[in-house]
Write a structure and sequence with these properties.
4-stranded mixed sheet, 35% helix, 4-PPantetheinyl_Trfase_dom, 235 residues, alpha+beta, 7 helices, 11 strands
């Protein structure tokens, strides 16, 4: 059995901590951050990618500010260099919450979504999900649909992010289990190999899922301290 380590971080750095976070990023990351129009979105991007560097650097024994990232053809990032042989990671952030998954010997995808009122959840499901998933969602009691929709969305996105296909893979091209059933990949083109999925407890107001390309996996979550940016920054 392989082991996946998943870090959960709150993105609430103070002004000085944010400066330290920014100092860890490379020019490409800073350029992406500066494309955001809202300062809050820019700050969360910077904090989430600094947290990613801290977590991945700790996993690989590499200083976070010297990590080099490259991208697959589909845009999925990976750590460049021999230290990353067999190592995979994935980042998701929503609102003030970030989830970072790391694994060796497989691929990993994580997704977190902050819950919000969504009166058209069924319409979105019927437009984007597999018909079986939309039907299962419609069969739930109305009061349960919104929460189930967000959990279902994170299950779908975690699979897509593990594969690294981006928008080239339709969300209707594969099916996952719909809550209240536990997470699981039910159908995907060409069989899709072995998959392990699990829900993550990220607290009230959000849903998160991790997906790993392995038959079985020991998921080990850890929540970073609220002041992680102050505790781990050295610059």
């Amino acid at each position: 059995m392989i082991t996946a380590r998943v870090a959960i971080a709150r993105l609430r750095p103070g002004p000085q901590s944010l400066v330290r976070c920014e100092s860890l990023l490379d020019p490409q990351e800073l350029a992406r951050a500066n494309r955001f129009l809202r300062s809050a979105d820019r700050d969360r991007f910077i904090a989430s990618h600094a947290a990613l560097r801290l977590v991945v650097g700790a996993e690989l024994g590499v200083p976070p500010d010297v990590l080099r990232f490259d991208r697959e053809e589909g845009g999925r990032p990976f750590v460049a260099g021999p230290a990353s042989n067999g190592f995979d990671f994935n980042l998701s952030h929503s609102g003030d919450l970030a989830v970072i998954g790391c694994v060796e010997g497989a691929r990993i995808g994580v997704d977190v979504e902050a819950r919000r009122p969504l009166p058209d959840a069924l319409r979105i499901a019927r437009s984007h999900f597999a018909s079986e998933e939309a039907s299962a969602l419609a069969a739930l009691p109305p009061e349960d649909r919104e929460g189930a929709f967000f959990a279902l969305w994170t299950r779908k996105e975690a699979v897509v992010k593990a594969l690294g296909t981006g928008l080239s893979l339709s969300l209707a091209a594969f099916t996952v289990a719909v809550p209240p059933s536990p997470p699981g990949l039910l159908r995907i083109a060409d069989g899709g190999g072995k998959w392990f999925m699990a829900a993550l407890d990220v607290g009230p107001g959000a849903c998160a899922t991790v997906a790993v390309t392995a038959a079985d996996c020991d998921i080990r979550p850890v929540s970073l301290a609220e002041d992680w940016a102050d505790m781990f920054m050295t610059k």
